[in-house]
């Protein structure tokens, strides 16, 4: 009997979903995803198939996950009408997993609602759908046309990707964070260096679920097909805390001796604070090289770094200080649940006292559609995942990307600042809860 070839995570899960013994990179497989995510763009998606919907309806009430988050709440009549159209669609077809404005950024919502489970296959009409690898799922983005077909038929085809193995070891030094690590990886691989490849993170047991989320979220910034972490006790504990039973999911992981197109190793103790400079996410420099650049707006939030632990780090740095008069500090919690956690631990009080503006849970300024768009010649330091021209609403502005700690330190000084100059302050009893 011929010995089965060891498979990577991506190969193994796609083989299972396609009902095959094994697959190889480049092979085309037909699969039925557990879920299809769409957001505000649902209005455009259903507009493509209005006749078909009238005749056939949707494939399943359980397939679609819809989250209104990109322009939340509606900024004008156009977006208000789009939101209305989505709500009518949800009601008409009985879509089970619908989350209206204020629930949060779609990717955060999908994870915290238990809709991304280990061993699942999820696609979405948003490029950062790759985030669900944090839960041990295969997740990737598809376009609106494919989303339209999926809504009707429930199936799609995928090409099996090659995989890159990224091994981690040791621990971050003080004031170094997952954002510094992923920006360092993007710098090394470049913005096209993982094109149609899947990132497999190994040895990540020292990282929290939130830190893993940050890493998985930015796989697409290297043109990656997705990213994944091995399910471990932290994953099990997270899922248990949100009400998911162990019997409800079946983890999948790579075989030993699986073949990778590339293997990288990162010693977390050697990672330094970094900044992605305009106008590309791989234009990454040590923060000491860009310190002192004036910043007009600081932004803390997004699916990359808008969770309660991110807000807590910022609060621990800015506590006792005020936002500098030359800058603005906008904060958008990644979800209502994370907002509530930040309220309970005192982070929001500290940020507001310092002069930060708290925005509704959602994408906020990240995509430049509303709430915090930039003016010509303005510079923003953001915890988001993209900094190309026009990303925050103005092609003549500049966007820098960094960790929540760097953004908070910069809000104090008004210029890009190394967060190591502002040690994390001791917590009050309220913040410790």
From TrEMBL:
Residues 67-289 form the Aconitase/3-isopropylmalate dehydratase large subunit alpha/beta/alpha domain. It comes from the Eukaryota. Gene3D superfamilies: Aconitase, domain 3 (3.30.499.10). Keywords: 4Fe-4S, Iron, Iron-sulfur, Lyase, Metal-binding. InterPro entries: Acnase/IPM_dHydase_lsu_aba_1/3, Acoase/IPM_deHydtase_lsu_aba, Aconitase_4Fe-4S_BS, Aconitase_4Fe-4S_dom, HAcnase/IPMdehydase_lsu_prok, Homoacnase/IPMdehydase_lsu, IPM_dehydratase_rel_enz. One of its GO terms (molecular function) is 4 iron, 4 sulfur cluster binding. It holds the Pfam family Aconitase. GO terms for biological process: L-leucine biosynthetic process. NCBIfam families: hacA_fam (TIGR01343), IPMI_arch (TIGR02086), PRK00402.1 (NF001614). This is 3-isopropylmalate dehydratase large subunit.
């Amino acid at each position: 009997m011929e010995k089965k070839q060891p498979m990577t995570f991506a190969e193994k899960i796609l083989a299972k979903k396609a009902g095959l013994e094994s697959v190889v990179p480049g092979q085309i497989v037909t699969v039925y995803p557990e879920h299809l995510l769409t957001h505000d763009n649902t209005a455009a998606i259903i507009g493509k198939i209005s006749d078909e919907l009238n005749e056939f309806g949707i494939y399943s009430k359980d397939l679609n996950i819809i989250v209104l988050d990109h322009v939340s709440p509606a900024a004008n009549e156009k977006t208000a009408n789009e939101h209305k159209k989505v709500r009518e669609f949800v009601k008409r077809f009985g879509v089970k997993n619908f989350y209206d404005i204020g629930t949060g950024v779609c990717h955060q919502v999908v994870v915290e609602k238990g809709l991304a489970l280990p061993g699942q296959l999820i696609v979405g009409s948003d490029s950062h759908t790759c985030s669900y690898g944090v839960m041990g799922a295969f997740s990737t983005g598809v376009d609106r046309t494919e989303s339209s077909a999926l809504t009707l038929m429930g199936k799609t085809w995928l090409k099996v990707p090659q995989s890159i193995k990224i091994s981690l070891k040791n621990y971050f030094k003080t004031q170094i964070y997952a954002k510094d690590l992923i920006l360092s990886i993007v710098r090394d691989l470049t913005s096209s260096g993982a094109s149609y490849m899947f990132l497999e993170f190994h040895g990540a047991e020292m990282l929290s679920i939130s830190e893993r989320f940050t890493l998985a979220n930015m796989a697409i910034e290297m043109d990656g097909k997705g990213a994944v972490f091995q399910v471990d006790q932290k994953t099990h504990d997270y899922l248990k805390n949100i009400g998911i039973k162990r019997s409800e999911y079946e983890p999948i992981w790579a075989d030993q001796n699986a073949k990778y197109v590339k293997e990288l190793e990162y010693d977390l103790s050697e990672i330094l604070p970094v900044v992605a400079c305009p106008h590309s996410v791989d234009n990454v420099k040590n923060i000491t090289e860009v310190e002192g650049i004036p910043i007009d707006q600081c932004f803390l939030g997004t699916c990359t770094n808008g969770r309660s632990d991110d807000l807590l780090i910022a609060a621990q740095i800015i506590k006792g200080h005020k936002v500098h008069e030359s800058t603005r500090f906008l904060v958008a919690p990644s979800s209502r649940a994370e907002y509530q956690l930040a309220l309970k631990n005192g982070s929001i009080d500290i940020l507001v006292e310092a002069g930060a503006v708290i925005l509704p849970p959602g994408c906020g300024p990240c995509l430049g559609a509303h709430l915090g768009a930039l003016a010509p010649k303005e510079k923003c330091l953001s915890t988001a995942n993209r900094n190309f021209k026009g990303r925050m609403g103005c092609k003549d502005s500049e966007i820098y990307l960094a960790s929540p700690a760097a953004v908070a330190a910069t809000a104090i000084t008004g210029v890009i600042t190394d967060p190591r100059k502002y040690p994390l302050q001791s917590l009050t009893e309220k913040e410790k809860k």
